[in-house]
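Worked Example 4.2. Consider the chain below.
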Amino acid sequence: MSNPFETVTAEAILEGTATDAYFDRTQTTLEHAGKNPHVVAEVTADQFPTGEFSVFTGIADIATLFEGRAVAIDALPDGQLFDGGPVARIEGPYLEFAELETALLGFLSQPSGFATAALEARLAAPDSTLLSFGARHVHPSIATTVERAALLAGFDGFSHVAAGELLEREASGTMPHALMFAFGEGNQAAAWEAFDEAVPEDVPRIALTDTFWDEKSETLLAADTLGDRLDGVRLDTTGSRRGDFRHIVREIRWELDARGFEDVDIFCSGGIGPASIRNLRDVADGFGVGSHITNRDPLDFSLDIVELEGEPISKRGKLSGVKDVYRTPEGGHHVALADGDAPDGGKALLEPLVRDGEIVREPDLEAASERCLGDAEAVGFGDPAE
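Applying the procedure from the previous section yields the following structure tokens:
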């Protein structure tokens, strides 16, 4: 069986069969009628600024999707924050790209949602270690999308091995509860010792310490067992058992410090989001964040023709005419007609991505992450000091 998981193939996406049926029928109709108008189409979520900024990403896939197509594409830089107006625009004969609309929107909508949620978590604790644990909540075929979005938003790492191979990053993670179960209650020390003996030296010795007994008891046992080889402990306690989780973490910190284990870090995971991160960031050293990222709805992007054969046009409820978007000196997001006046001191954000089928801008993840975090500060996204 050539495609056992029934996933849409890369070939189908590039060929344009990963599309909605009405685009096929539109293409057939236009070809029958001998029509192929020259258009400008824009990708937008909101027509006007709303005061709610989101992170834009996915342009590497868009560039690949349109490579070889006789179109010109301008788009926001990878990692740019936006608030209304176009995030991308396509100019060319409509039949050059009609069937790609479905894939285009998917490539932008879901990763932009993931990255926006990840940025919320990152800004909740700018100085803490954050790892993405969200791949288990999505179809395996898009695990890399989740992990890349987290890295773009400033996360320090992620857990998915195959995504790490594609992103050329080492996956993070030490042990699950299953390892502790395999050794059994009362044999936690044996589990940690076996782990210490088995895994490479460059893997941090972070013991899971909430499996059978209370977190403090297992943490102190791990410290006694591994001594100065212990790098940290992870508390993955379910919400139904936590009680005052902040008090638990503070108590563990106190007991470790009292025994000379000041350098042992405390890492928290399990249903962690910005609110819990802010509550724990001064007593815990790091967090694993999963469902907060992957539960985020995709951004509701749409593609609309705004110019037809050089003349402005739009459907009801949408704005006609080719537009530009700007970052104002005050950190605002400004939308204006492309042939109109730019705001004083405004920086135009749309940049060339594809010209006549050739990719003219190669996205860089590290640069995108720097841009995302810098722009978040410029526009006041979240409040790191909250």
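Residues 101-124 form the longest helix (24 residues). The chain has a mean pLDDT of 95. Compare this with Example 4.1 before moving on.
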